[in-house]
Amino acid sequence: MLKLSGKQIYLRALEPTDLDFLYHLENDTDNWELSGTQTPYSKAVLEFYLDNAHRDIYEVKQLRLCICNASEEVIGLIDLFDFDPKNRKAGLGLIIKNQDDRNKGFGAEAISVFCEYAFSILNLHQVYANILESNTNSIKVFEKLGFTAVGLKKDWVFSNGSFKNEILYQKFKS
To answer: Which residues does the UniProt record annotate as the domain N-acetyltransferase (predicted)?
Structure first.
């Protein structure tokens, strides 16, 4: 049986009690570059989102799970997006909210657990990630986990007055 857990973290579905975490994460302008967000979210909009988070992945083409630590605190989110069951592929995104929780292996473990789920339960052939060229920490993690850089998207993201390159990474089911 597949468990959505590792040694340090486990993944779980979003709950109504995650509203405050989601509100602070989505409205932190430091994260907007990664998410493509340009406007803040109200609690009412996020409550509606949480009320609909149970919808089937085959209908909404995405899945968002909380990353929880051993103390059962939500420390981040992991997303499967652009779910394409016909071509057996999807994108993967991850964020660890607090700087203090980064570089401790939580993100790497969440990616490993999530990829195992994507390959064994969703029967995906590949998972891809889009990573800013300047995000060297994420690049190291994804490469360590077997993702391969397959393309460079030049001037792909406009942020803080300049264009930034984004690298496309892929991992195939072994």
So the answer is: 9-174
What is the tens place of the pLDDT at every residue in 53-83?
A: 878 898 889 999 999 999 999 999 999 999 9
Rounded CA-CA distance 162/149 in Å is 23
Q: What domains are there in the chain, each with its CATH number?
A: 9-129 (3.40.630.30)
Nearest Cα to 167, choosing from 146, 121, 136, 123?
136
Write the CB contacts of 96 (distance below 8 Å, at least 6 apart in sequence). 67, 75, 76, 102, 106, 107
Phi, psi of 35 (to 5 degrees): -95, -10
Count the Cβ atoms, other than its own, within 10 Å of residue 45: 12
Q: What are phi and psi of 8, to 5 degrees?
A: -110, -20
> φ, ψ for residue 154 (rounded to 5)?
-75, 140
128 vs 142: CA distance, rounded Å: 10
Q: pTM value?
A: 0.91
